[in-house]
Amino acid sequence: MQTKARVEAMRRQANDSCDVCASRSICLPGGLDKHQCEAVSQQVQWRHSLLRGEHLYRVGDPVRDHLYAVKTGQFKLYDVDESGKTRVIGFRRAGDFLGLDVLGRSHHRISVVALTDAVICEFSHARLVVGALREEALARELNALMSRELAREHSVHLALYERDATNKLSQFLLMQRDEQMRRGESGELLALAMSRADIGHYLSLSGETVSRILTRLQQSGCVTISHRHVMIVDISGLRAVPVAEKAGKSPLALDYRAAGARPYPIAFSRPLPNRARAEAATLALPVRRAQCAKRVPALKIVS
């Protein structure tokens, strides 16, 4: 019964034209007038509703010259390597386009799955190009769309390149905040539809490491966490994490020292895989000697 109600709600959303769509201002018709917006709406070949967990397409599916605008919902882009390991490529939400990465190709190189119930608008790339040749405003919006996608990828590489775990996650939260604010949503309460494991795969960390860092960010007063919602309490503190990490002065460590704790080096009682060892090194956050002995029995203090 609940599924039926969700499908009916998505069907009503799918019937909305571009002119009255809630995502219009951040989607392709954002800079177009009413007449031009109607022309774009007529280019929509189909509007699809997907329940959470359903795939829009998978690796190897034929492209068929289709582009998809996300009307509502959130998506995960991923692939699986030869060893069976999932690699998360990115996340998309309302106003974003899917399929730009395979223009001119015959088959999809990644899979796209709905993280929430979602509605997408299907376009023909060839028809959009023809429309852009006829309408200068549409050509301008298509160029802006491509430019925004390139800028996003550039920002991701700058934010995540050669940074430690705490730094990566703080930058990820700030990027999510910027994305929500660009859509006119709250920049304080982040609705993260992805799991901790998904975030970890995206940042090349384990899900457990993501959870530990989020807990420490919460203990430091930067954020508060409720399931998959993260409230940014101290935006200045969150922004200070990358700067402090570069200087070797983590604000998380300073908060613990103010509480009377000091960092201790730790050694593992059994060998760890290289990835886990590297992640442990990036989590050089202070703990009390008593806390370490009580809460983490697998660790031993090294003087």
Give the rounded overall mean pLDDT: 78
Give the proportion of residues in helices: 40-55%
CATH superfamily of the largest domain: Jelly Rolls
Radius of gyration: 22 Å
Query: Would you state the CATH class of the largest domain?
Result: Mainly Beta
CATH fold label of the largest domain: Jelly Rolls
Order of the strands making up the biggest sheet: 1-8-3-6
Q: What is the number of helices?
A: 11
What does this molecule look like?
The chain has 303 residues and is an alpha+beta fold. The chain folds into two domains: 150 residues, Jelly Rolls, CATH 2.60.120; 137 residues, Arc Repressor Mutant, subunit A (Orthogonal Bundle), CATH 1.10.10. 44% of the residues lie in helices and 20% in strands. The chain contains eleven helices and 13 strands. The strands form four sheets. It has a four-stranded antiparallel β-sheet with strand order 1-8-3-6. A hairpin with a 5-residue loop joins strand 4 and strand 5. Helix 3 crosses helix 4 and helix 5 runs antiparallel to helix 8. The N and C termini lie far apart (61 Å). 29% of the residues are buried. The C terminus is likely disordered.
